[in-house]
């Protein structure tokens, strides 16, 4: 009986290696800022909001520099020159809080420790606060707040741990001194860091949510565009299929309609009919892919400009006053243009019903040189009628643009100064076929 020997288990991550790894991460967080040196609120929309951090840091520096110097000279008996140097070192870096709070900490924290060591050389007073002075504690809390707002959780934990450790070491150096400020700063610093970190993480969550909404909106717009293109392709299938069917019938019946065709011509017509049938089959297979699952094709004929009057009458019955002006010189319009013009008017009237109920609307369809012009203009909503929809999905405008783009035309949509809306489409028309040339008249006979 054979037994398969398993490989050696992977070495477990011991406590010592885990501690070293965490220390390296904390050291990296203390030495590398987690954000670029951009000012706080740099992306705010208003100027006063972008200037607010600079005003705050200027006020902090202008307040704490003289206060620190005064406290060091009057309460701790430090000489004026040394007090001035310590006051500037401990408070002037507050000017960096708006854009480089971690670098400011690397200046203020050693200056505070140096100030605590300087105070050891002074005789201890009965009500003296040590190792951190009262203005130093307050300034340091502002520094911690800025760190909590800008830096990662790992960095602020490292700053808090180093601050608490420095207070503990100073207490061991001079246990006879009253070191309550070290414990006070540790507790208050933890509270301030938690508040700043919570505000920062909330802002990060809001930015990520806004990014996701932007991505979702872009995906929704792309999906709408694809749906509209698919719907247009399904509708144009009938138009193209009609012409292909005509080609097939003509090619099949040509040998019977035209007598005396050579054998090569009959074979050519047979090949044309076979190619047309194959194309129809490919179109049907493509349409089955474009059609959604479980949906049946529309068996009704596609509408055109000849049904605009019915569309307008149905819209009037729905309570929307519409004036239709249909040029009598339209002539024969290509099926794709005919369908696109009808759909543009249909969607424009539907938008008026949804967004401006009761507004008087004018519909104009005419020819302008070699273009078909479709114009739908409506005024503001009548009376106190509230719109049925305050914000649309944008499907209608996307569909209009796609139809116009498909036919090589242009679309101009937008609001009017009086509160109405305008939809104007120019769709190119194929050049009209020249009239057949009449046979030349016979020359007049001359009487001899």
Count of strand segments: 5
What class would the helix/strand composition place it in?
Answer: alpha+beta
CA-to-CA gap between the ends? 134 Å
How many helices? The count is: 11
How many domains in all? 3
> What is the percent of helical residues?
55-70%
Order of helices and strands: HHHHHHHHHEHEEHEE
Sheet with the most strands: spatial strand order = 1-2-3-5-4
Rg, Cα atoms, Å? 41 Å
Considering the chains and any ligands shown, give keywords for the structure.
448 residues; alpha+beta; Heat Shock Protein 90; 3 domains; five-stranded mixed β-sheet; 11 helices; 5 strands; 59% helix
Ordered list of secondary-structure elements with their pairings:
Blueprint: H1 15-31, H2 47-74, H3 80-91, H4 101-120, H5 134-150, H6 153-173, H7 180-257, H8 263-290, H9 308-317, E1 322-326, H10 335-355, E2 361-368, E3 371-378, H11 395-406, E4 410-415, E5 421-428
Parallel strand pairs: 1-2
Antiparallel strand pairs: 2-3, 3-5, 4-5
Helix pairs in contact: 1-6, 2-3, 2-5, 3-4, 4-5, 5-7, 6-7, 7-8, 7-11, 10-11
Biased composition (Pro residues): 428-448
Protein name: histidine kinase
GO molecular function, one term: phosphorelay sensor kinase activity
Describe it for me?
This protein has three domains: 190 residues, no CATH class; 63 residues; 124 residues, Histidine kinase-like ATPase, C-terminal domain (Heat Shock Protein 90). It is elongated and about 130 Å long. The N and C termini lie far apart (134 Å). It has 448 residues and is an alpha+beta fold.
């Amino acid at each position: 009986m054979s037994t398969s020997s398993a490989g050696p288990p992977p070495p477990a991550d011991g406590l010592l290696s885990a501690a070293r790894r965490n220390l390296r991460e904390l050291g990296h967080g203390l030495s590398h800022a987690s954000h670029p040196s951009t000012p706080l609120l740099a992306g705010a929309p208003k100027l006063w909001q972008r200037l607010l951090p600079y005003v705050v840091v200027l006020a902090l520096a202008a307040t704490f520099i003289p206060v620190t110097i005064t406290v060091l000279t009057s309460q701790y008996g430090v000489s004026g020159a040394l007090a001035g140097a310590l006051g500037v070192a401990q408070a002037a870096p507050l000017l960096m809080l708006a854009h480089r709070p971690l670098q400011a900490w690397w200046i203020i924290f050693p200056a505070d420790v140096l100030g605590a060591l300087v105070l050891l050389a002074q005789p201890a007073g009965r009500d003296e606060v040590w190792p951190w002075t009262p203005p130093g504690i307050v300034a340091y809390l502002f520094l911690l707040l800025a760190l909590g707002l800008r830096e990662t959780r790992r960095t602020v934990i490292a700053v808090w741990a180093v601050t608490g450790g420095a207070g503990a070491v100073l207490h061991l150096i001079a246990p006879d001194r009253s070191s309550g400020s070290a414990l006070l700063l540790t507790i208050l610093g933890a509270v301030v860091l938690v508040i700043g970190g919570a505000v920062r993480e909330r802002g990060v969550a809001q930015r990520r949510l806004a990014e996701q909404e932007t991505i979702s909106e872009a995906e929704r717009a792309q999906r709408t565009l694809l749906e509209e293109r698919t719907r247009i392709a399904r509708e144009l299938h009938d138009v193209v299929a009609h012409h292909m069917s005509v080609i097939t019938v003509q090619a099949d019946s040509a040998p019977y309609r035209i007598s005396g065709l050579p054998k090569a011509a009959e074979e050519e017509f047979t090949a044309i009919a076979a190619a047309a049938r194959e194309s129809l089959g490919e179109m049907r297979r493509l349409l089955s892919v474009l059609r959604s699952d479980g949906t049946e094709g529309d068996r009704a004929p596609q509408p055109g400009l000849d049904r605009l009057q019915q569309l307008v009458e149905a819209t009037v019955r729905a309570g929307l006053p519409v004036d239709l002006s249909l040029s009598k010189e339209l002539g024969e319009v290509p099926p794709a243009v005919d369908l696109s013009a009808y759909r543009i008017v249909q969607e424009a009237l539907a938008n008026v019903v949804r967004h401006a109920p009761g507004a008087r609307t004018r519909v104009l369809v005419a020819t302008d040189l070699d273009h078909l012009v479709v114009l739908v203009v409506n005024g503001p909503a009548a009376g106190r009628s509230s719109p049925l929809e305050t914000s649309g999905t944008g499907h209608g405008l996307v569909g209009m643009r796609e139809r116009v783009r498909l036919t090589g035309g242009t679309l101009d949509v937008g609001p009017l100064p009086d509160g109405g809306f305008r939809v104007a489409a120019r769709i190119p028309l194929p050049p009209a076929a020249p009239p057949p040339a009449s046979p030349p008249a016979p020359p007049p006979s001359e009487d001899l």
